[in-house]
Design a protein that fits this description.
Layout lengths: L1 H14 L10 E3 L4 E4 L2 E11 L2 E6 L10 E4 L3 E10 L4 E6 L5 E3 L2 E4 L2 E4 L11 E6 L3 E16 L2 E11 L6 E6 L2 E9 L6 E8 H7 L3 E2 L3
Parallel strand pairs: 1-8
Antiparallel strand pairs: 2-3, 3-4, 3-17, 4-7, 5-6, 6-7, 9-10, 11-12, 11-14, 12-13, 13-16, 14-15, 15-16
Length: 215
């Protein structure tokens, strides 16, 4: 009976020149959690390559090219297109545009942190980590072009900060509205300062011919 009622309702809407309402695409960008089986990571920033949308993800979603990743209630986002920094950072192409819409902000603690550019902050400058556990946690850039031996291998070209990061909650490094980089690792469990590293976003995007999605 319910199916018959639904069919009759749809037919009536067509006769009246209307169409059934469809759900609007959900926001997708920095802070979005992506997964596929044992893979689990957080998007740091949204990017574009021409008309195509991408997500730059943090560690955890390094996978074979073409591996499909999901978000939300197991909704397809799109495939991994490349991985870099010894698998620490991946690019995911957003192919399911019917379900997702790129946004230039990162949601955290009820606040939308807008990303309007990616002007690089110098050594000694202020930088903040958007962290799902610690919130917006700020400090200073202490060095650049660092080489670090992570469990997955040696990574070069990193920026070092004195910011503590949580285990698994780091999203992105920003300075005001300017994107800085993708968190790769550092000390956790600290209450004040620590050591953390990020892969700068500008050379990363330039290497793949992408531009940051901004608002």
């Amino acid at each position: 009976m319910r199916r018959i009622a639904a069919i009759l309702t749809a037919a009536l809407l067509l006769l009246l020149g209307a169409t059934p309402a469809t759900a609007a695409p959900a926001p997708l960008g920095g802070g979005s959690i992506l997964f596929n089986g044992s893979l689990h990571c957080t998007a740091a920033f949204a990017a574009k390559g021409g008309p195509t949308g991408y997500l730059v993800t943090g560690p955890g979603c390094a996978a074979a090219i073409g591996t499909q990743l999901f978000s939300g209630n197991n909704v397809l986002v799109g495939p991994v297109t490349s991985s870099t920094a010894n698998g620490g950072v991946s690019l995911v192409r957003v192919t399911n545009t019917a379900a997702w819409q790129l946004v230039p902000w990162i949601p955290l603690g009820g606040v939308h942190y807008m990303i309007s550019g990616s002007v690089e902050t110098p050594v000694g400058g202020s930088v903040c980590l958007l962290d799902r556990v610690l919130g917006r946690h700020c400090g200073t850039i202490t060095a650049k072009n660092q080489t670090v031996n992570f469990p997955g291998g040696v990574v070069s070209g990193l920026t070092r900060t004195n910011i503590c990061m949580s285990a698994g909650g780091a999203i992105a490094f920003v300075s005001g509205t300017q994107a800085q980089g993708v968190p790769l690792g550092g000390t956790s469990g600290c209450s004040t300062s620590g050591v953390s590293y990020f892969l700068p976003v500008n050379p990363l995007l330039a290497g793949y011919g992408l531009t940051l999605f901004t608002g």
